[in-house]
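Suppose you are handed a protein chain with no further information: no name, no annotation, nothing but its sequence. What can you learn? This example shows the usual starting point.
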Amino acid sequence: MAGATAGGLAWAVGLPVPASTGIGVAVWLAAILVVGHLFGGLAGPASGPEDGAAPYAARAAAARDAFAAAAAALRGGPGGPVADHMAAGVAATAAAVARLEAARPRLAALGAPAAAATAEVGHRIQAGTRDLEEAAAALPAAVGGPDALLALARRIDAVGYGVAIAERVAAEALHPGGPAAPPGPDEYT
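A reasonable first move is to predict its three-dimensional structure. Written in structure tokens, the prediction is:
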């Protein structure tokens, strides 16, 4: 969004279209780097799961199920609405991890032109899965007070945002010049 706005503004003040496009791309890449740094991205290349570990989609699904079971204990109490919000966020992020993991071979098949996108998506899958597992483990301890629950809810939202960035990167790499709307659930297959 920031790149499109910057490019549009550059064009609106009279810069030629190629220069405006360059400005938009530069701002977009800067935004990806900044957000990646703030939300755990770009720490290094990500490969597949560690030796002996389950695939990320399976690990994310297991974290989703563990989180849902722990959140069920909060329903009916004062933390119930927050727990429901968090469980929905964890479920949506786990589904996005599964879609992205399924798209990784297609990204890798694009070769060098999509190498950065492939690495970024791989890293965000890895970080998102790890963060979901940590959130599932942290929920029982967060039950002690509303501040802890809200802090965990913010963390889960940030994890979902980081994985959503990966979805956007994957969609742009797989469908250059595609629609500006966020990818749908079946857009990678």
